[in-house]
Amino acid sequence: MSTSILETNSVHKSYFQGQSEISVLKGIDLQVSAGETIAVIGQSGSGKSTLLSILAGLDRPSSGSINLASANISQMSEKELTSFRGKQLGIIFQQFHLMNSLTALENVSLPLEIASIPKAHDKALKALDLVGLSHRAKHLPHQLSGGECQRVAIARAFVTEPKLLLADEPSGNLDQETGQMVMNLLFDAVKKRNMTMILVTHDDDLANRCQRKLLLKNGTLIPVGV
């Protein structure tokens, strides 16, 4: 029986716009097993990115609990959360979010250095090699193409060997051919390391590559294809 790595219980999220309260998430119950890949699909504005931000601890739920690797992240302080996230989570954004003044190698080794993980340089170089970019290790982000920047971001996301990888439309800013190549690399890396991944995507082909598909609609998650 697979170990549950992530569990959410009745997670709600509301925002206030002026005097109006807008409910985005209305009771998210999710259980994710170790090594499982899950796609979250849904219309634009349905709350997919909000859900991912809450799972990553970048945003707080209005109510409900989130347990990741047996720790209740919804009750952690910001300091505890930052430390926990650095060791247990890998996050890939659509916008890359690389540090412009750092080389590809420095960007990848940064999470290791923050978490005081030894042999940061060697591990970062190995991660870059896995995405086919060891020869671009000394290049700055502005010297890399969009596809190369996203590959650096992927290497950075899994260099700490996190328990959970969260990916928010990682090929959204790339042309179709580059996007496909980058996503092949991502799925290969996840498979090689037997990682758990939650992928937010609008692309049915990518969603179908995951073991499970969930539709976010009216603030709740609905299983697809079951």
Describe the structure concisely.
The chain has 226 residues and is of the alpha/beta class.
Characterization of this structure:
- The chain has helices at residues 48-55, 78-88, 104-114, 120-130, 146-158, 176-192, 204-208; strands at 4-17, 20-33, 37-41, 63-68, 71-72, 89-92, 164-168, 196-200, 212-217, 220-224.
- By secondary structure, it is an alpha/beta fold.
- It has one domain (4-218): Rossmann fold (3-Layer(aba) Sandwich), CATH 3.40.50.
- Strand 4 (63-68) and strand 5 form a beta hairpin.
- Helix 3 (104-114) packs across helix 4 and helix 5 runs parallel beside helix 6 (176-192).
- 38% of the residues are buried.
- The mean pLDDT is 92.
Beta-sheet strand percentage? 25-35%
CATH class: Alpha Beta
Measured between the Cα atoms of the first and last residue, the distance is: 20 Å
Radius of gyration in whole Å, from Cα?
Answer: 17 Å
**Biggest beta-sheet profile:** 6 strands, mixed
Number of strands: 10
Helices and strands, with pairings:
Layout: E1 4-17, E2 20-33, E3 37-41, H1 48-55, E4 63-68, E5 71-72, H2 78-88, E6 89-92, H3 104-114, H4 120-130, H5 146-158, E7 164-168, H6 176-192, E8 196-200, H7 204-208, E9 212-217, E10 220-224
Parallel strand pairs: 3-8, 3-9, 6-7, 7-8
Antiparallel strand pairs: 1-2, 1-4, 4-5, 9-10
Helix pairs in contact: 3-4, 3-5, 4-5, 5-6
